[in-house]
Write a structure and sequence with these properties.
By secondary structure, the protein is mainly beta. It is built from no helices and ten strands. Helices cover about 0% and strands about 50% of the residues.
């Protein structure tokens, strides 16, 4: 996790593998642990369907996340 934007409920993630709409991720940290389906994904405020490793994307998340939380494919 590289950043969290609380006003819009979006997490910024730098991918280490390909990710697509409809896939699920798990966010795990000291006080965070949830699984969510990717329903919205953007690069530079442009909606995308999938992104490759190395991409810095924004995804809608259901609850607060923190900068050092880990993100895994669920």
């Amino acid at each position: 996790m590289s950043a969290y934007y609380s006003k819009i409920g979006v997490a910024a993630i730098v991918l280490t593998a390909t990710l697509s709409i409809g896939e699920s991720i798990r966010v795990k940290g000291a006080t965070t642990d949830f699984v969510t389906e990717i329903t919205s994904m953007q690069i530079d405020r442009v909606a995308i369907e999938s992104a490759d490793a190395g991409a810095d994307i924004g995804v809608q998340v259901p609850s607060k996340v923190r900068k050092n939380d880990a993100v895994f494919r669920a």
